[in-house]
UniProtKB/TrEMBL annotation:
Free-text function comment from the UniProt entry: Involved in both the arginine and lysine biosynthetic pathways.
Pfam families from the UniProt entry: Aminotran_3
Protein known as: Acetylornithine/succinyldiaminopimelate aminotransferase
Cofactor: binding details: Binds 1 pyridoxal phosphate per subunit.
Native source organism of the sequence: Kluyvera georgiana ATCC 51603
Binding positions for N(2)-acetyl-L-ornithine per the UniProt entry: R141, T280
Residues that bind pyridoxal 5'-phosphate: G105, A106, F138, D223, E224, V225, Q226, T281
Keywords: Amino-acid biosynthesis, Aminotransferase, Arginine biosynthesis, Cytoplasm, Lysine biosynthesis, Pyridoxal phosphate, Transferase
Pathway note: Amino-acid biosynthesis; L-lysine biosynthesis via DAP pathway; LL-2,6-diaminopimelate from (S)-tetrahydrodipicolinate (succinylase route): step 2/3; Amino-acid biosynthesis; L-arginine biosynthesis; N(2)-acetyl-L-ornithine from L-glutamate: step 4/4
UniProt xrefs under Gene3D superfamilies: Aspartate Aminotransferase, domain 1 (3.90.1150.10), Type I PLP-dependent aspartate aminotransferase-like (Major domain) (3.40.640.10)
Cofactor: pyridoxal 5'-phosphate
Documented EC number(s): 2.6.1.11, 2.6.1.17
Gene name linked to the record: argD
Length: 406
């Protein structure tokens, strides 16, 4: 007999690192989720930029159940067909020569940073260990990745932190130039800072980082955990910018909701990661790779990628209209379907309150820090769902300016 479950159980049983919404979703389809009470929500949160094909996509269900009926796991003493197929798909679609699979974005970044260090140590000596990252960046929650991340709130309680990591100011190339030298082994950067507030890098910033890395023989790592797999209207954001990294990390949307991460590498960097230097029990497991292979083949088509650009227009036009009515935002920014609405100064710190009012209206949105409401919907969200969802957002904004809290 199954036990009845309520949201209060979370507060009693779970380690209190999250503050989930007051409802529990139990079923999803496309851009919709329903909670235990049967209330429907338009989902513009997309599981934090994960559910690129929405919920319960028939092709993903087919890929998962087909593989589930064959075998689930062998560990890395054996390879498998879905992993090799997915690796070839990623190689054919990107700059990469080789792929390492893991289970999350943090793990992919951990692998990237370790690869960059090993490459530098092998080729130039152990003095070349410096990592340059950026303030406000987010790269995951392992000790190495919170240290590379530029939000001290996520790392300061866990000191001592790994040494030799410093932080420049995002989009300020002069601040990076003074940090990058011959002792730098890697520069890690998000082409669009996601958690940091949906802030796109400028083209010149990424181009100049590329040039500095070339000059100092450092690896340029693009963290595309949030921007990858079609989110910007290109398969990866580096294609949007025309700046190619040496190492690229991808996760989130790659599995469409099934946990998977990957490190994409050029041959030179991959070649230093010899047998036994790195690994994971579950990385490249056939269930995850079967689903991701399906997700990638659906998303990496002109139809879906152009559709993202079309949807970006729908979102931005309607959000501008909502803003013309309520005057909440000083900027509506982002690329493709990673969109941030930055609150005007008089509403600073209130993004969470707006997201709670939206949930009350039957709409799931994200925040990115305390001042930005973020949208990361399915890349194939239907126009009628965009319209309905943004009508609900307008209703939430109206209640917010009227002084209501949820
Ligand atoms: C840019 C970026 N890198 C890394 C991560 C960490 O990914 P994960 O939570 O899968 O470890 C995130 C998650 O939000 C992210 O946005």
């Amino acid at each position: 007999m199954s036990q009845s479950i309520s949201r209060q159980d979370f507060d009693q049983w779970m380690m209190p690192v999250y503050a989930p919404a007051p409802f529990i979703p139990v079923r999803g389809e496309g851009a919709w989720l329903w909670d235990q009470q049967g209330k429907g929500y338009v989902d513009f949160a997309g599981g934090i930029a994960v559910n690129a094909l929405g919920h319960a996509h028939p092709a993903m269900i087919r890929a998962l159940t087909e593989q589930a009926g064959k075998f689930w796991h062998t560990g890395n003493g054996y390879t498998n067909e879905p992993a090799l197929r997915l690796a070839k798909q990623l190689i054919d679609a990107t700059f990469a020569d080789r792929i390492f699979f893991c289970n999350s974005g943090a793990e992919a970044n951990e692998a990237a940073l370790k690869t960059a260090r090993k490459y530098a140590h092998d080729r130039f000596g152990s003095h070349k260990s410096g990592i340059v990252a950026f303030k406000n960046a987010f790269h995951g929650r392992t000790l190495f990745t919170v240290s590379a991340g530029g939000q001290p709130a996520y790392s300061q309680d866990f000191a001592p932190l790994p040494p030799d990591i410093c932080h420049g100011v995002y989009n300020d190339i002069d601040s990076a130039r003074v940090l990058i030298d011959d002792d730098t082994c890697a520069v890690i950067v998000e082409p669009i800072q996601g958690e940091g507030g949906v802030i796109p890098a400028s083209l010149e910033f990424l181009q100049e980082l590329r040039a500095l890395c070339d000059r100092h023989h450092a690896a340029l790592i693009f963290d595309e955990v949030q921007t990858g797999v079609g989110r910007t209207g290109e398969l990866y954001a580096y294609m949007h910018y025309g700046v190619t990294p040496d190492l690229l990390t991808t996760a989130k949307a790659l599995g469409g909701g099934f946990p998977i991460g990957a490190l994409l590498a050029s041959e030179a960097f991959a070649s230093v990661m010899t047998v036994g230097t790195h690994g994971t029990t579950y990385g490249g497991n056939p269930l995850a790779c079967a689903v991701a292979g399906e997700v990638l083949s659906i998303i990496n088509t002109p139809q879906v990628l152009n559709g993202v650009k079309q949807r970006e227009q729908w979102f931005k036009e309607r959000l501008q209209a909502i803003n013309a009515q309520f005057g909440l935002f000083k900027e509506i920014r982002g690329v493709g379907l990673l969109i941030g609405c930055a609150l005007r100064d008089e509403y600073a710190g209130k993004a969470k309150q707006i997201s709670l009012l939206a949930a009350d209206e039957g709409l799931m949105v994200l925040i990115a820090g305390a001042n930005v409401v973020r949208f990361a919907p399915a890349l194939i969200v239907k126009e009628e769902d965009v319209t309905l969802g943004l009508n609900r957002f307008a209703a939430a904004c109206e209640r917010f300016v009227a002084g209501e809290s949820s």
